[in-house]
# Entry
Amino acid sequence: MIRVKNIVLIIGVVLVNLSGAFSQKKAEMINTRWANNVVVADGSLSDWPDSLTMFNEATNLYYSLANDDKNVYLALRSASKQDLTKILAGGISFSANIEGKKKDPATVIFPVLDRTPGKSRNTKDQPEVEEMQKQILSRIKDIKVAGFKEIIDGGISLQNTYGIRAAAGFDKNNNLIQEIIIPLSLLNLSTANAGEVTYSIKVNGLQGASVNMNQRQTAQRQPMGGMYGGQFPPRNSAMNKLLTSTEFYIRSRLATKQ
# Structure
């Protein structure tokens, strides 16, 4: 009995330490810029004059953050072909939270690919990259949300009435571009609030049952798996990277109009 109690105690200590390790992830302090121009979620960076100069090495994402008195705006660009597969498999989660106020902050997950099987095609005939990109974008039909007080967790339309907007596209170098817009009111934020905001950006990767062999074989015939080479990486270190989510945190205060 004593040995059992000791084991339980040890496990408890380990879990507490792990919990502390995850909660102590450092967040980089950045400056959020004021959105002087109108930002439209269209999968293009034409609204972003800084060309996404900030970079996170863990996720291989270039990014920029802006706000006005109504919305917070996030733009992302991924230049890694392997990470493109990972992004399309599980999307990117973006959350905003006033420091220490909420355990599960309001989160937008995008892009979300429609998994409804399409018409089968001859896998020996690889479509052109541009055509493959069109197929990928055509499968993005909604936005996933979680933790919003006013919205039920799950999928919402790209043209929802909540004011949340998201879009994806590809630039001339075949890099995936994403834009996400969230109304400040849905985040209980305001430019009058001088509090510090913690943002989380997480590349989710392959989730749960989606990693089993049958679905992996199906994915080889779908745009997300065939974008570059027609299939997922084999079950090795590259596959392990696809299974592991990567996340980083940034801290900032909402910008105010000068």
Confidence is low (pLDDT under 50) at residues 1-24, 209-236. DSSP finds six helices and 13 strands in the chain. Residues 26-253 form a domain with the Immunoglobulin-like fold (CATH 2.60.40).
